[in-house]
């Protein structure tokens, strides 16, 4: 991937929700004396789930991914020459990182420089694996990578670079069997690197065949390209394809339109080939974030940066409007308010472009900038990255994000990634259903048992007898009684997704509190993420140690404190209790606190109640005083009021103290409101 500052200086960057890994229960655990047998509980149907309120803070479907770059050993392998065991251990650690951060997809670079991370009959083994191009690494990395991702129920998107041949300019350094050595007329040298010439039809056909080899032979979920088509421009130097234009450019009055057509053909043809071979495989591209500036083209964005349409001949807007891709993931690698490329403006523009198409919008996030030396001051603010996700909520076209790159997710500089997880990945999420490509939900699974033991609650289910099932979603609701189907419309009660394997499935809920009664349900998922109706619920009683839940209203004696800056109102009837408190936003430390007595250290669900109004604040900061420090969660108080809204589950220490606060410190307009909180042990 490439990142441009707005002065057109190029900086090269080589570029499911909390998925809980399936925990198999050993015979020793099953042999323990179980608690009372679970009982089936009815699910109360609703006329249409569209009528159900949905908590925007806990969306049920989101694409949550990270790029794992192999070129120049950016992420994996960390260096060439690692043993097979070390390579496998490193890769597993990246997947485990994705799971810990509640992601549901990885985008892994498997063809970085006209080479392969699988035994390809088209191109040599990548030297980024062994240090020597063409050397067999001793195993099939792609088969291993896909299997390991699927074992964790992570989607695997195979990331290819179509035209880059080498990060150097010496053709003789390539292995003698390399297609570029055998066809030197296909290759051009530009900017100190080697590239296949996109204007040669034989080249376009060859690179498609090389990539389709992986599509046809491996169980990948997506094909992914980044922003390399024609190379980024070197000042004062033209890409040397004038002779190619003379040979193949009939019908085009200028070379630039011809170059764009060459890339358009690559995109259009590849999408057709992918879906003809495997209709369920997604095709996505992550282009440079700016198509064209409005000053150049009235259809462009209100920006003033490098234009991919003109600089690298990538007509990204057309790919979307023609529905040639399934998702577009523009690299919007700038902060909110950037003078030349405002993140907010580009999200608005891409949302507008994708509206009315069959293309889903996923945002490429510059996680690598957060807290990094030399970045703009905005990126030294731990709240910058999480504010991007909050802004995305106001654009329903945005169905998720991809983080660049894995090493930066792991680094978690200034706690920026932890903020994203706490604020936006607090619950698992299912992947979005594609806008086209068919598919239907399988039948409902049968949840045959839910048994409590000292290790938690073990669930067992049978695979549906109809439809194709590739995975399951597991839900847990507190208490007993009938289950309202509206409880499943967002992810508040989603606790795990599990890959399907065989006729039965099992999963261990290690987070089930011993004293709590729960209802469990399971659904089945199709390859394209269509979800079945839920199973009948199973109720698991608590073990008699008791439960804890407390509501603190702003009028609770001794439970609420606020300064004189906080007014009192009875204006909205959707309030909790007799009134609620409100204040104007301001950059001051003036928090309204709810206090409670926490009986024992443990995991607690924290919920808030407020009356919503279109004039209230879209990003009201809520502070949760966890056992390891304050966590901030922003809530859009313009909607979703008059009900309990979950902030998340947190580790709270025992004792009486301030637990939840509502802050005035927000840059958005509209009153911030403090009404009531509910704290429940889970």
UniProtKB/TrEMBL annotation:
<keyword id="KW-0732">Signal</keyword>
<dbReference type="InterPro" id="IPR036116">
    <property type="entry name" value="FN3_sf"/>
</dbReference>
<dbReference type="InterPro" id="IPR013783">
    <property type="entry name" value="Ig-like_fold"/>
</dbReference>
<dbReference type="InterPro" id="IPR003790">
    <property type="entry name" value="GHL10"/>
</dbReference>
<feature type="signal peptide">
    <location>
        <begin position="1"/>
        <end position="31"/>
    </location>
</feature>
<keyword id="KW-0449">Lipoprotein</keyword>
<dbReference type="InterPro" id="IPR033803">
    <property type="entry name" value="CBD-like_Golvesin-Xly"/>
</dbReference>
<feature type="domain" description="Golvesin/Xly CBD-like">
    <location>
        <begin position="550"/>
        <end position="681"/>
    </location>
</feature>
<dbReference type="Pfam" id="PF02638">
    <property type="entry name" value="GHL10"/>
</dbReference>
<dbReference type="Pfam" id="PF25275">
    <property type="entry name" value="Golvesin_C"/>
</dbReference>
<feature type="domain" description="Glycosyl hydrolase-like 10">
    <location>
        <begin position="63"/>
        <end position="380"/>
    </location>
</feature>
<dbReference type="GO" id="GO:0005975">
    <property type="term" value="P:carbohydrate metabolic process"/>
</dbReference>
<dbReference type="InterPro" id="IPR017853">
    <property type="entry name" value="GH"/>
</dbReference>
<dbReference type="InterPro" id="IPR052177">
    <property type="entry name" value="Divisome_Glycosyl_Hydrolase"/>
</dbReference>
<protein>
    <submittedName>
        <fullName>Uncharacterized lipoprotein YddW, UPF0748 family</fullName>
    </submittedName>
</protein>
């Amino acid at each position: 991937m490439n990142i441009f500052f707005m002065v057109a200086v190029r900086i090269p960057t080589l570029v499911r929700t909390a998925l809980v890994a399936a925990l198999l229960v050993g015979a020793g655990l099953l042999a323990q004396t179980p608690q009372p047998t679970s009982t089936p509980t009815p699910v109360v149907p609703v006329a249409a789930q569209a009528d159900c309120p949905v908590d925007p803070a806990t969306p049920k479907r989101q694409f949550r991914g990270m790029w794992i770059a192999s070129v120049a050993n950016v992420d994996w392998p960390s260096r060439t020459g690692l043993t097979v065991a070390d390579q496998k251990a490193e890769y597993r650690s990246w997947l485990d990182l994705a799971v810990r951060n509640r992601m549901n997809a990885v985008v892994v670079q498997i063809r970085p420089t006209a080479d392969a991370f699988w035994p390809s009959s088209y191109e040599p083994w990548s030297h980024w694996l062994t240090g020597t191009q063409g050397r067999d690494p001793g195993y099939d990395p792609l088969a291993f990578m896909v299997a390991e991702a699927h074992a964790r129920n992570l989607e695997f998107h195979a990331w290819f670079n179509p035209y880059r041949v080498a990060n150097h300019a010496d053709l003789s350094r390539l292995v003698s069997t390399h297609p570029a050595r055998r066809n030197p007329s296909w290759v051009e040298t530009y900017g100190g690197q080697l590239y296949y010439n996109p204007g040669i039809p034989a080249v376009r056909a060859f690179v498609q065949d090389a990539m389709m080899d992986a599509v046809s032979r491996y169980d990948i979920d997506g094909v992914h390209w980044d922003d390399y088509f024609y190379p980024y421009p070197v000042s004062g130097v033209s890409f040397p394809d004038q002779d190619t234009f003379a040979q193949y450019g009939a019908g085009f009055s200028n070379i630039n339109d011809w170059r764009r057509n060459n890339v358009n053909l690559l995109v259009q043809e590849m999408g057709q080939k992918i879906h003809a071979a495997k209709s369920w495989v997604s095709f996505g591209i992550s282009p440079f974030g700016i198509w064209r500036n409005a000053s150049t083209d009235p259809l462009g964005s209100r920006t003033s940066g490098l234009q991919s349409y003109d600089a690298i001949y990538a007509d990204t807007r057309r790919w979307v409007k023609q529905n040639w891709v399934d998702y577009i993931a523009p690299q919007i690698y700038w902060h909110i308010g950037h003078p030349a490329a405002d993140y907010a403006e580009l999200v608005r523009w891409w949302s507008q472009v994708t509206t009315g198409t069959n293309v889903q919008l996923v945002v490429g996030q510059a996680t690598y900038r957060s807290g990094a030396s030399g970045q703009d001051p905005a990126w030294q603010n731990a709240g910058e990255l999480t504010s991007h996700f909050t802004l995305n909520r106001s654009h329903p076209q945005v169905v998720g994000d991809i983080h660049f790159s894995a090493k930066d997710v792991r680094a978690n500089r200034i706690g920026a990634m932890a903020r994203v997880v706490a604020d936006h990945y607090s619950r698992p999420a299912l992947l979005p259903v594609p806008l086209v490509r068919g598919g239907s939900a399988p039948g409902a699974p049968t949840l045959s048992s839910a048994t409590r033991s000292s290790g938690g609650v073990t669930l067992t289910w049978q695979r549906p007898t109809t439809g194709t099932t590739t995975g399951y979603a597991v839900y847990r609701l507190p208490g007993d009684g009938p289950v309202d189907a509206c409880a499943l419309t967002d992810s508040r009660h989603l606790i795990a997704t599990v890959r399907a394997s065989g006729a039965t499935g099992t999963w261990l809920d290690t987070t089930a509190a011993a004293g709590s009664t729960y209802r469990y349900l399971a659904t089945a998922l199709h390859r394209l993420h269509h979800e079945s109706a839920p199973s009948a619920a199973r109720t698991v009683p608590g073990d008699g140690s008791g439960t804890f839940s407390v509501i603190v209203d702003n009028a609770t004696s001794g439970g609420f404190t606020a300064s004189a800056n906080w007014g009192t109102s009875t204006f909205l009837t959707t309030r909790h209790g007799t009134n609620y408190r409100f204040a104007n936003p301001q950059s001051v430390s003036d928090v309204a606190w709810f206090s409670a007595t926490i009986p024992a250290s443990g995991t607690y669900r924290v919920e808030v109640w407020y009356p919503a109004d279109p004039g209230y604040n879209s990003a009201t900061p809520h502070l949760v005083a966890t056992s390891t420090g304050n966590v901030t969660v922003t809530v859009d108080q313009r909607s979703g009021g008059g009900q309990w809204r979950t902030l998340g589950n947190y580790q709270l220490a025992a004792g009486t103290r301030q637990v939840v606060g509502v802050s005035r410190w927000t840059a958005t307009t509209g009153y911030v409101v403090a009404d009531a909180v509910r704290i429940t042990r889970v």
